[in-house]
Each structure stands twice: as structure tokens, then as C-alpha cells.
What we know:
Blueprint: E1 4-12, H1 19-35, E2 40-42, H2 60-75, E3 83-92, E4 95-104, E5 107-113, H3 125-128, E6 138-142, H4 145-151, E7 155-159, E8 162-164, E9 169-174, H5 176-179, H6 184-190, E10 195-200, H7 209-219, E11 235-243, E12 251-252, E13 256-259, E14 262-266, E15 275-283, H8 284-292, H9 295-301, E16 309-311, H10 337-356, E17 361-364, H11 369-390, H12 394-404, H13 414-421, E18 422-428, H14 434-447, E19 450-455, H15 457-471, H16 484-512, E20 520-521, H17 527-532, H18 553-566, H19 572-577, H20 596-600, H21 604-616, H22 621-631, H23 638-655, H24 690-702
Parallel strand pairs: 1-2, 1-11, 2-3, 8-16, 9-10, 10-11, 17-18, 17-20, 18-19
Antiparallel strand pairs: 1-15, 3-4, 4-5, 6-7, 8-9, 11-12, 11-13, 13-14
Helix pairs in contact: 1-2, 2-4, 10-11, 10-18, 11-13, 11-14, 11-18, 15-16, 22-23, 22-24, 23-24
Organism: Galbula dea
Subunit structure: Homohexamer.
GO biological process, one term: 'de novo' NAD+ biosynthetic process from L-tryptophan
Amino acid sequence: xxxxxxxxxxxxxxxxxxxxxxxxxxxxxxxxxxxxxxxxxxxxxxxxxxxxxxxxxxxxxxxxxxxxxxxxxxxxxxxxxxxxxxxxxxxxxxxxxxxxxxxxxxxxxxxxxxxxxxxxxxxxxxxxxxxxxxxxxxxxxxxxxxxxxxxxxxxxxxxxxxxxxxxxxxxxxxxxxxxxxxxxxxxxxxxxxxxxxxxxxxxxxxxxxxxxxxxxxxxxxxxxxxxxxxxxxxxxxxxxxxxxxxxxxxxxxxxxxxxxxxxxxxxxxxxxxxxxxxxxxxxxxxxxxxxxxxxxxxxxxxxxxxxxxxxxxxxxxxxxxxxxxxxxxxxxxxxxxxxxxxxxxxxxxxxxxxxxxxxxxxxxxxxxxxxxxxxxxxxxxxxxxxxxxxxxxxxxxxxxxxxxxxxxxxxxxxxxxxxxxxxxxxxxxxxxxxxxxxxxxxxxxxxxxxxxxxxxxxxxxxxxxxxxxxxxxxxxxxxxxxxxxxxxxxxxxxxxxxxxxxxxxxxxxxxxxxxxxxxxxxxxxxxxxxxxxxxxxxxxxxxxxxxxxxxxxxxxxxxxxxxxxxxxxxxxxxxxxxxxxxxxxxxxxxxxxxxxxxxxxxxxxxxxxxxxxxxxxxxxxxxxxxxxxxxxxxxxxxxxxxxxxxxxxxxxxxxxxxxxxxxxxxxxxxxxxxxxxxxxxxxxxxxxxxxxxxxxxxxxxxx
Length: 703
């Protein structure tokens, strides 16, 4: 009868402008899909060129090389007898579109441009692409000669259409269109489309995966009588990019297939596999019977404006498929936030390390929570690498051998791999305590890093000595009678010398050990400290990359506890119990007197709240005050709330300039202050906020 269709989707670790590597991974996914009996294969958004090309989309080379890759796909025997759905940029009538190119047996069936572009947060698609605003409209697209020579076609359909095969109807969505309030699948479903595809480039954010899964399942469910998009029924197939394709984002896979609102196939969220393919066999009659009982849906369907249909002389099912087993619903397993921190940044670091062709990482390890959490993420990365090698991942093994410059090496245990690729360094000064030194040393021993302990006092004295020679004056810490300016300057000198030494060690430590290559310097400033500006510009927060720069202090503490329990890193117990401190001011009776929260004038918990209100709730000083007098009514008076809000905005605006030089950080939190493209603000403020603060004062007096 022909009712069981076998479809495939995938997560690919594509890399911007790596046309050769991207082509190889696309071919591999098609081979796997065909070997498992699939008749349709869906890939991620813009998979041919890689999603993160940014302003390279302006270049004609990017379009040219994308078509060259498409030609290779079209002419290959590997793509025969399977509908292939690939993503690439296309220029149509001198307008650039983000497109799906769907082809079968050397013929392009349809070029479908993206309708709703992602243009918020980290996304800037309107900078490079134009949305297709002609609903249910198709035009002729004149193919370039290199494609005409392969397909024998001069023109192909370009626009908002669906595919009608012998046995079903298939419609495309592209990433953001699923998140839009008027998603195309709503009316496509009413018009008889039974299979919806969505090619995405969706990045990881802590606690986001369930939202994506719920959206996919709700697209084909009938859970709510108030929202038409849940009436559809159908098969929904999601493909997503995976990995670091050249910037701050980690695309977190999670390819999935859903039937009538229930997940039937789930891909991994974090993995070192460059190619992961999901295949599912599903019964079209389940879709039809599901829809048939919903009278309100059928009444709406009888009035829908029909989509143009591209007829395809091909079936996704086989005539004799009665005995073919079909997939059943599964329960989606979500990672905890602590697991996400352990896995996401670790996979991002691995991609960055192998693609940058460096020999490992160097981390200034202070013995505090932030640098220790960063060390744990590297340890987790080594754990993932060893696991992948044990599971037979030949690509990971080849990358490891190249990184350590030993073709016979096989990593078996994370500590042993850490020893080869991870260097930690404790940089003591006269203001450092023995406690932090011991904590750093013990953690390094437990994770297996190559550990260096050194003292920076000689370098600090040399720099301050130069200043004294030039000016004839010698600055003092405030505990010795110095001013606040002197106190801060002396702290900053220590911090900046640590940055200089970190880069020197990264370049020459392996040379000194008789080993080739250099090391990437890791930063370890968390998202809350960046928001407040509680860091020295060009200190150890200045690094090559920062795996925790998008993670809050609260989440990092929970992650540390997770590492104690799951990696048995007992050294972390004393680290998590110690108050966070920069250790830049003199000790008092041999003990640390300086603490981060006292220095900042606010707690880390308060900082997280300020960050979410400022960025996610779009609150300026006055709006933040109004929200917090309600949130904190049990613990603060309005006047105390006003004082806290004013202090935060003063410190935030005074230090905003530091965000312009912030180390590229793993994006994990939606209140990140990253100035690169996510949080676009001035960096020279009127830090008195006179009008805004006066509005707060008036409200305080009224209350």
C-alpha cells in the first residue's frame, strides 16, 4: 500500500568556509542515511558553506564555492535515489537568500528561500540575507552554468512551495520559522502537507533545549484548542548544526524526529562525532487518522489558500511495507545545567583546539572557583576525548595524535591526556595565601595537568621601580597609608603581569620541555564579573578564549559540586567552601582580608538578578528599581533597593569599556554582556545617570 516512510535527519559539525570538509561530512551523512533505508535526507541550515560565514556572505566567492559543492553533490552516485535537502546562500535577481536546495537524481526540484530571518541576540541574518516575502509564490530561477551542465536544467522553481511525491506531501521550514508566531507549518499542514522539515543552526544556551523540543512536538500535536498550530498532526524532522564553526557559539545538535506531537528519534546534544544521522520509519496513516478526527482543523483546511506543489515522481515509501516496523515514541532525556556546563564548553574547546592546530591549553590557576571550573571543563574535555576513542572514533584519535605529535599515542585515561595537553600555572605574589597555592596544586594533581608554581614579586617590583624612577614617587597600598588610586594601581600591576607571563609561558613552555607547538591561553572571568566590570582590563581575563565567560557564578558553584560527585575531584571541596578573593591586597596576619563580594559592593546572586533584568527584561535603572521593590519587598526597603540599583548601574557604566576587549567567550547565558555582537551598548556613559536616578528618588520619596 505504501504508507511507511523512512526519513533521515542529521547533526553535522560544519565549519565556516571549510567547503572541502563540509562536503565530506554531507556525503558521509547521505551514505549513512541510504544505508539505513532512508528515502529523504535533511541537513542543517547553510551546511554547504557553514552557518557562521558572517560578512563572507557578501563575497561572490562564497556563492561560487557553494555552487561548486552543490555540483559535486548533484553529479555523485552517492546522492542517487534519495531526496537530498541541503542549505546554501543563493543570489536570485541580485538579492541574496538563505535557501534550501532540494534535489533528486541530478535534478533540482525546488529552491526554497527562508521566510523569517533570525535577527536578535547573536543572529544578524538581515545584515546578509533578505526574507522571501511572497507567500505561496514561485518564480523561475536561472541556474548557473556549472549546475546546468550537471542537471540539464536551465531554470528551476524558486519560492514558497511544497513537494508532492507519489505517496505524501513535504514542506520546508528553516530554523527561525519554527519560532515565529505564524510558522509556515500551520497553514502547510492545513493544506495537506504531512511531513515538515526544519534545517537549523541553533546554538546552545543553558536550559534552552527543552524549549526547542517542545516547539517541535507542539508543531504536530493537538494539545491546546486555543492555538491552531497545535492542530496539525504530522511528521516533523529537525536537523541542526553541531560544534564550534569559528566563533563564540556552540551549536548543540539535538536533531530529532517527531510524530503527532511525540518524539520518536532523538540525537545527542553534545558529542565529538562530526556526523550523526537519525533515521526513522513512520506510518503516514497515523498522521491521516490523527487529523481526521479534529473537525475544527478540517473546517479550517477546507478554506486554506493552497501552496504551489512541485510534483516529484518518487515515493518515500515502498509498495509492500505492511511488515515494516515503525518507530514508537520515546521519552526525551534532558541534561541538567551542570551536565550542560560539563559537556557544551568541553566540546567547544575541543573543536577550537583541533581546528586552531595548537598543542594544548595554558590556564592561570588561582585556586578559586572560576579558574578551577575552567580546569574542570578541560578535564571533562579530556574525558570526552578518551570516551570517543574507546568508542572507535578514528577522527578524534587522529586529532589527538596530531595535537600531541605522537602518531602511536592512544589516550586511555583523562589524567594522562591532561598531562600532555594542559598546563596550569599558579602565579603567587606576596599577597597570595598558602591556602590558594595548595588548592591549585592539589587540583592540578587530581586532574593530571602539567603544573607550574612561580612568584611574580620580582616582576611587580621591577615595574613599580620603573614608575618610581620616572616620577620620583612610590605608590602604597591603602593598608600602608596609600590612596585608593594607589591601591587600585598596585592591584592592576599584579594582574597585568600575570597576563604577560601567561602568554610567555604559553608560547615557550613546550619549547622549554623539548616539545613542539604552542598553547592557547584560557581566561576564566564569569559572566557576572564581566557585567559588573570586576576585572582588570588586560589581566588574566585577557586570553585567547574563555569557556566560562557566559556562565554565572551560581551555576559555576553548582558545576563544581557536580565535578566533586561525578569526577571524584575532592580538591574542589576546599575551593567551593572558600570565599572568592582576588588576593591582590596585602594579607592581614597571614590571612586573606580581601573578598570579591565586599570589593564589588554586591553579591553574585544579586548580580545575576541585575543581569537578567538589564538584558532579558530590557530594564533601565528606573524599571529595574520598580521590579526589585516588589521582588525584594521582604528583605529591603525601597531606599535600600534604590541604593543597590544605583550602585550597580554606576559600576556597570564605569566599567562598560572593558567589554570591548573581552576575551571571546562561550555563549551560554542570555544576559551575557558580550559587546562583540550580542549586547550592543555604548562604552562611554554619563555615569551619573542624573535623570534616571532622580526618577528613582522621586518614587522612593513617594513610597
